[in-house]
Amino acid sequence: MSASKPNLDGLLIFEQPFARVPYENYRKVFRTAQKNIERELGAIQTASNDLAKNAQSSCQEDPQGVIRSLENMIDRVEGLKRKLSDLQTTAGSPTLDVMRERCKHLATIEGIQNSKDSEYARWVDIRLDRWIVDWVLRHGRVQTARHIAQEKGIEALVDIDLFMDIRRIEEALGKHSCSEALLWCGENKNALRKFKSTLEFDLRLQEYIELARDRRTTDAIAYSRKHLIPWQESHLMQIQQASALLAFPPTTTCNPYKRLYDPNRWSNLIQSFRLAIFSLNTLPSEPLLHLALYGGLSSLKLPTCYDQDMRNHDCPVCDPWLGKLAEEVPFSHHVNSTIVCRLSGTIMHEDNPPMAFPNGYVYSREALEDMSAQNDGKVRCPRTHEECDVSKLKKVFIS
User: Fold this and answer.
1) Confidence of residue 35 (pLDDT cuts 50, 70, 90)
2) What is the DSSP letter of 215?
3) CB of 109 within 8 A of CB of 6?
């Protein structure tokens, strides 16, 4: 492999959700079509079997009834055909187009042989635009994200529709309504069961708590029997505690029940829903832009980056804003150190060796020679402001 060829594994490490989101969307289309087919064809099969059993007598006694039965079956088949056609037009084909565009985008990088190619630069720019849109969407700026996507021509490469659904459901939860989230749980029941998610139970429990808060005891008992009791194998203790909640008013100071009445549970539900939908689509909980920055910052982060006297203006970690983000990543591990000149930001090596002032501070020879050329052979340490003749500098050897 050529040294200048892009590292394919490294470039694609964040691209799983990029391909997974449209795949999950098309799975939903497939499941919806499957349910429609099973329901309609099942009814037709039943009617057909009944008609076959009574064919001899029905034809003789009520030939018009047989004709009506056949027409009903034909109508159901035609209705099924319309439903499937509409589903394919409104959701199936657009999702397939998105999958095709994304596969084409990923295939582009596989054919690039040199990281200096203009095609590679374009691919990296598009990836950065996608990450920026992802960051904007996660902060609820849907219109801004849509504008960026349209301007850059990457509508098929970003997940605006997904985050619009997330925002819609989170807004409903923010208004203390579980209906939208429960509907989503119903649509993704099998996947949530596979992830062992308790989101649906948590939503049902919260609806029960709200009935208890309003002191609608009869409704709360009926709700518990219908929606909580089916979960008793895995959540028996919580159901028992919730049953006792009816004996405590919302103003109770008893901690177990005071926590159940806590309004902050709605914020926890929003976080649980977001984690569930992210897990379903293999989306990371952090913005992709942050994850990419973490990788770069962790390779540059040194203890000196947080020393006010040692900061370098060319170092991203020394930047106050990026440095704040870098606090969450570990320090870099270097088997061989790289020494960077504080004056010029260039790496010091055998052709540009480090030179030491009498006070011990070290800078690159090229930077000090440029300084002395502009200052009549004098150089000044930017830290201590000590000035000396360039001949007083001593070469430092790196071992």
Assistant:
1) confident
2) T
3) yes
Residues in the chain: 399
Q: What percent of the chain lies above the pLDDT cut of 70? A: 94
- Please give the mean pLDDT across all residues of the chain: 86
Copy the structure tokens of residue 381.
């340490």
Which residue type is seen at 186?
G
Output the CA torsion sign for 279, 293, 167, 19.
Answer: negative
The alpha-carbon radius of gyration of the chain (Å, integer) is: 33
Specify the 3-state DSSP secondary structure of 340: strand
Nearest to 208 by CA among 255, 252, 261: 261
CB of 18 within 8 A of CB of 102?
yes
Coil, strand, or helix at residue 289?
Answer: helix
CB-neighbour burial class of residue 339 (10 A; exposed 0-12, middle 13-18, buried 19+): middle
* Helix, strand, coil percentages, rounded to 5, for the chain: 65, 5, 30
Which residues, at least 6 apart from 297, have a Cβ–Cβ distance to it below 8 Å?
316, 317, 322, 325, 326, 329
Within 8 A by CB and 6+ apart from 258, the residues are: 252
Q: Using an 8 Å Cβ cutoff, are 355 and 368 in contact?
A: yes
Of 350, 347, 354, the closest CA to residue 369 belongs to 354
CB atoms within 10 A of CB 112: 19
**Is residue 356 within a helix (H) or strand (E), and if so which, with residue range?**
strand 354-356
- Enumerate the β-bridge partners of residue 349: 352
Are 353 and 395 a contacting pair, CB within 8 Å?
Answer: yes
pLDDT tens profile 147-206: 999 999 999 999 999 999 999 999 999 999 999 999 999 988 888 988 889 999 999 999
Distance, in Å, from the CA atom of 87 to the CA atom of 78, rounded to the nearest integer, reads 14
Task: Measure the CA–CA gap between 18 and 159, rounded to whole angstroms.
Answer: 8
pLDDT at residue 336, as a whole number = 64
**Predicted confidence (pLDDT) at residue 334 exceeds the cutoff of 70:** no
